[in-house]
Write a structure and sequence with these properties.
Order of helices and strands: HHEEEEHHEHH
Number of strands: 5
Strand order of the largest sheet: 4-3-2-1-5
Number of domains: 1
Number of helices: 6
Radius of gyration: 23 Å
CATH architecture: Up-down Bundle
Strand content: 5-15%
Distance between the termini: 19 Å
Shape: elongated
Helix content: 40-55%
Largest sheet: 5 strands, antiparallel
Amino acid sequence: MISRRASRHLGGFAAAILAWILCSVSMSLPQWRVWFFQDPMDNKPSMTLVGMWRTCVYHEEKNSNILRACFQYTYQDTFIPLDIRVAQHLLLISSFLGMISTVSVVVVLWKLYSAGIPKKATYNPFFFPGILNIIASSFVFISVLYNYLSIIRKDGIVFPPSFHTPSFPDTQKVGTALEMATLSSILFLVGGTISLSFTLPPHSRMCSAI
Protein backbone atom coordinates (compact mmCIF):
# COMPACT_ATOMS: atom_id res chain seq x y z
CA MET A 1 0.00 0.00 0.00
CA ILE A 2 2.81 2.38 0.94
CA SER A 3 4.67 1.47 -2.24
CA ARG A 4 1.62 2.33 -4.33
CA ARG A 5 1.31 5.69 -2.66
CA ALA A 6 5.03 6.34 -3.08
CA SER A 7 4.82 5.50 -6.76
CA ARG A 8 2.41 8.40 -7.22
CA HIS A 9 5.22 10.71 -6.21
CA LEU A 10 7.65 9.43 -8.81
CA GLY A 11 6.31 12.17 -11.09
CA GLY A 12 7.23 14.76 -8.47
CA PHE A 13 10.66 13.20 -8.12
CA ALA A 14 11.13 13.34 -11.90
CA ALA A 15 10.09 17.01 -11.93
CA ALA A 16 12.53 17.84 -9.13
CA ILE A 17 15.48 16.05 -10.71
CA LEU A 18 14.74 17.70 -14.08
CA ALA A 19 14.60 21.06 -12.29
CA TRP A 20 17.99 20.38 -10.73
CA ILE A 21 19.49 19.51 -14.13
CA LEU A 22 18.01 22.61 -15.78
CA CYS A 23 19.22 24.82 -12.95
CA SER A 24 22.77 23.47 -13.15
CA VAL A 25 22.92 23.67 -16.95
CA SER A 26 21.39 27.14 -17.22
CA MET A 27 23.80 28.47 -14.62
CA SER A 28 26.77 27.55 -16.83
CA LEU A 29 25.34 28.95 -20.08
CA PRO A 30 25.96 32.55 -21.21
CA GLN A 31 22.53 33.03 -22.81
CA TRP A 32 20.83 34.81 -19.92
CA ARG A 33 20.69 38.17 -21.64
CA VAL A 34 21.19 38.60 -25.38
CA TRP A 35 22.52 41.99 -26.47
CA PHE A 36 22.26 43.20 -30.06
CA PHE A 37 24.09 46.06 -31.74
CA GLN A 38 22.67 47.73 -34.85
CA ASP A 39 25.96 48.89 -36.34
CA PRO A 40 28.47 46.08 -35.75
CA MET A 41 30.88 47.49 -38.34
CA ASP A 42 31.48 50.57 -36.18
CA ASN A 43 33.89 48.70 -33.91
CA LYS A 44 30.92 47.15 -32.17
CA PRO A 45 30.15 43.46 -31.71
CA SER A 46 27.15 42.12 -33.58
CA MET A 47 25.88 40.32 -30.46
CA THR A 48 26.89 39.75 -26.84
CA LEU A 49 25.65 36.98 -24.57
CA VAL A 50 25.64 37.92 -20.89
CA GLY A 51 25.61 34.99 -18.48
CA MET A 52 26.08 34.39 -14.79
CA TRP A 53 29.71 33.29 -15.06
CA ARG A 54 30.86 34.40 -18.50
CA THR A 55 30.17 36.72 -21.40
CA CYS A 56 30.53 35.76 -25.04
CA VAL A 57 31.12 38.49 -27.63
CA TYR A 58 30.43 37.96 -31.34
CA HIS A 59 32.15 40.16 -33.93
CA GLU A 60 31.18 40.13 -37.60
CA GLU A 61 34.07 40.65 -40.01
CA LYS A 62 33.88 42.21 -43.46
CA ASN A 63 33.99 38.77 -45.08
CA SER A 64 30.86 37.84 -43.06
CA ASN A 65 32.81 35.55 -40.74
CA ILE A 66 31.72 35.55 -37.11
CA LEU A 67 34.39 35.64 -34.42
CA ARG A 68 33.50 34.58 -30.89
CA ALA A 69 35.39 35.41 -27.73
CA CYS A 70 34.24 34.35 -24.24
CA PHE A 71 35.40 35.90 -20.98
CA GLN A 72 35.00 34.20 -17.59
CA TYR A 73 34.03 36.10 -14.44
CA THR A 74 35.85 35.85 -11.13
CA TYR A 75 34.85 37.06 -7.69
CA GLN A 76 37.55 39.71 -7.97
CA ASP A 77 35.87 41.37 -10.98
CA THR A 78 34.38 44.64 -9.73
CA PHE A 79 32.40 45.39 -12.91
CA ILE A 80 29.86 42.60 -12.23
CA PRO A 81 26.55 44.22 -11.17
CA LEU A 82 24.84 43.36 -7.92
CA ASP A 83 21.99 41.46 -9.58
CA ILE A 84 24.41 39.01 -11.22
CA ARG A 85 26.39 38.55 -8.01
CA VAL A 86 23.22 37.77 -6.07
CA ALA A 87 22.00 35.40 -8.80
CA GLN A 88 25.36 33.59 -8.83
CA HIS A 89 25.10 32.69 -5.16
CA LEU A 90 21.38 31.87 -5.26
CA LEU A 91 21.80 29.55 -8.25
CA LEU A 92 24.75 27.77 -6.64
CA ILE A 93 22.73 27.25 -3.47
CA SER A 94 19.72 26.05 -5.48
CA SER A 95 21.82 23.53 -7.37
CA PHE A 96 23.27 22.25 -4.09
CA LEU A 97 19.82 22.00 -2.49
CA GLY A 98 18.52 20.16 -5.55
CA MET A 99 21.34 17.64 -5.28
CA ILE A 100 20.64 17.02 -1.58
CA SER A 101 16.90 16.70 -2.27
CA THR A 102 17.52 14.16 -5.03
CA VAL A 103 19.69 12.01 -2.77
CA SER A 104 17.13 12.27 0.05
CA VAL A 105 14.25 11.16 -2.19
CA VAL A 106 16.28 8.20 -3.47
CA VAL A 107 16.94 7.10 0.12
CA VAL A 108 13.26 7.49 1.07
CA LEU A 109 12.07 5.57 -1.98
CA TRP A 110 14.54 2.78 -1.25
CA LYS A 111 13.20 2.49 2.28
CA LEU A 112 9.60 2.50 1.09
CA TYR A 113 10.13 -0.17 -1.53
CA SER A 114 12.53 -2.41 0.39
CA ALA A 115 12.72 -1.95 4.14
CA GLY A 116 9.39 -0.18 4.54
CA ILE A 117 8.37 2.42 7.13
CA PRO A 118 7.87 1.48 10.78
CA LYS A 119 4.22 0.96 11.67
CA LYS A 120 4.38 3.70 14.31
CA ALA A 121 5.60 6.28 11.80
CA THR A 122 3.22 9.21 11.38
CA TYR A 123 5.58 11.67 9.67
CA ASN A 124 5.89 12.52 5.99
CA PRO A 125 9.16 10.94 4.80
CA PHE A 126 9.25 13.34 1.82
CA PHE A 127 8.93 16.48 3.96
CA PHE A 128 12.66 17.32 4.03
CA PRO A 129 13.30 17.03 0.26
CA GLY A 130 10.01 18.82 -0.39
CA ILE A 131 11.08 21.82 1.69
CA LEU A 132 14.49 21.86 -0.04
CA ASN A 133 12.85 21.90 -3.47
CA ILE A 134 10.55 24.77 -2.53
CA ILE A 135 13.49 26.79 -1.16
CA ALA A 136 15.45 26.07 -4.34
CA SER A 137 12.43 27.17 -6.40
CA SER A 138 12.26 30.51 -4.58
CA PHE A 139 16.00 31.12 -5.00
CA VAL A 140 15.91 30.38 -8.73
CA PHE A 141 12.81 32.56 -9.07
CA ILE A 142 14.60 35.50 -7.43
CA SER A 143 17.54 35.05 -9.81
CA VAL A 144 15.22 34.91 -12.80
CA LEU A 145 13.25 37.94 -11.62
CA TYR A 146 16.44 39.97 -11.18
CA ASN A 147 17.44 39.25 -14.77
CA TYR A 148 13.99 39.87 -16.22
CA LEU A 149 13.87 43.26 -14.51
CA SER A 150 17.35 44.12 -15.81
CA ILE A 151 16.20 43.35 -19.36
CA ILE A 152 12.98 45.34 -18.95
CA ARG A 153 14.89 48.33 -17.53
CA LYS A 154 17.51 47.93 -20.28
CA ASP A 155 20.30 47.95 -17.73
CA GLY A 156 23.85 47.97 -18.99
CA ILE A 157 27.12 46.60 -17.67
CA VAL A 158 30.41 48.48 -17.67
CA PHE A 159 32.62 45.78 -19.14
CA PRO A 160 36.40 46.19 -19.10
CA PRO A 161 38.04 47.38 -22.35
CA SER A 162 39.38 43.88 -23.03
CA PHE A 163 35.82 42.69 -23.69
CA HIS A 164 35.50 45.08 -26.66
CA THR A 165 31.77 45.56 -26.07
CA PRO A 166 29.83 48.74 -25.15
CA SER A 167 28.23 49.13 -21.74
CA PHE A 168 24.72 49.42 -23.21
CA PRO A 169 23.24 47.43 -26.10
CA ASP A 170 20.98 48.86 -28.75
CA THR A 171 18.43 46.15 -27.96
CA GLN A 172 18.36 43.15 -25.67
CA LYS A 173 16.12 40.16 -25.08
CA VAL A 174 15.66 37.11 -22.89
CA GLY A 175 18.06 34.26 -23.60
CA THR A 176 17.45 30.52 -23.59
CA ALA A 177 19.33 30.04 -20.31
CA LEU A 178 16.94 32.44 -18.57
CA GLU A 179 14.00 30.48 -19.98
CA MET A 180 15.54 27.22 -18.73
CA ALA A 181 15.97 28.71 -15.26
CA THR A 182 12.33 29.85 -15.27
CA LEU A 183 11.20 26.31 -16.09
CA SER A 184 13.54 25.00 -13.40
CA SER A 185 11.89 27.21 -10.78
CA ILE A 186 8.43 25.91 -11.76
CA LEU A 187 9.53 22.27 -11.70
CA PHE A 188 11.22 22.69 -8.32
CA LEU A 189 7.95 24.06 -6.96
CA VAL A 190 5.92 21.21 -8.49
CA GLY A 191 8.28 18.56 -7.13
CA GLY A 192 8.33 20.14 -3.68
CA THR A 193 4.54 20.51 -3.51
CA ILE A 194 3.99 16.88 -4.48
CA SER A 195 6.51 15.74 -1.85
CA LEU A 196 4.78 17.75 0.87
CA SER A 197 1.39 16.33 -0.10
CA PHE A 198 2.49 12.75 0.61
CA THR A 199 0.43 11.03 3.31
CA LEU A 200 0.87 7.66 4.94
CA PRO A 201 -1.83 5.02 4.44
CA PRO A 202 -4.65 4.96 7.00
CA HIS A 203 -3.38 1.54 8.15
CA SER A 204 -0.10 3.04 9.34
CA ARG A 205 -1.89 5.79 11.28
CA MET A 206 -4.25 3.27 12.86
CA CYS A 207 -1.31 1.11 13.96
CA SER A 208 0.32 4.17 15.46
CA ALA A 209 -2.85 5.01 17.39
CA ILE A 210 -3.13 1.45 18.72
